[in-house]
Amino acid sequence: MKALPPRLKEMKSQESVAGSKLVLRCETSSEYSSLKFKWFKNGSELSRKNKPQNIKIQKRPGKSELRISKASLADSGEYMCKVISKLGNDSASANITIVESNEITTGMPASTETAYVSSVSRMLTMTFWEKEKSRQ
């Protein structure tokens, strides 16, 4: 039986809030062992040299995962996974949308410096009494 070219499962677009974790899975049902996976963001390849520090790419048998930790608005975009083999290539894409968190922060962040400004004033009142001169 002849081996078939790899085919990727559909990736799902995701929306999440800033600061969250996301995982994109690029999976194939191919049993071919020599698969090479490449990831792209908005058409540019995410290689070791040019990918953001918060993005990690892991390869496992038959799949590759792109993990985004502490997502920011800059991580929004179209992500594409491409699988390459001697038998053929395939690609799948998904959109990632990161939105600002509506979380209300209570208290002060650890990096806040607080300055207290105060002034104290003291009022001094002096009273003088004069004896009235007698009228003659």
TrEMBL record:
Major site of localization recorded for this protein: membrane
Membrane-topology annotation of the record: Single-pass type I membrane protein
Any one GO BP annotation for this protein: cell differentiation
Cellular component GO terms, alphabetical: extracellular space; plasma membrane
Keyword Transmembrane helix included in the entry's annotation: yes
Compartment annotation: Cell membrane; Secreted
InterPro entries attached to this UniProt entry: Ig-like_dom, Ig-like_dom_sf, Ig-like_fold, Ig_I-set, Ig_sub, Ig_sub2, Neuregulin
GO molecular function: chemorepellent activity; growth factor activity; protein tyrosine kinase activator activity
Keyword Transmembrane helix recorded: yes
Protein name: NRG1
Taxonomy of the source species: Eukaryota, Metazoa, Chordata, Craniata, Vertebrata
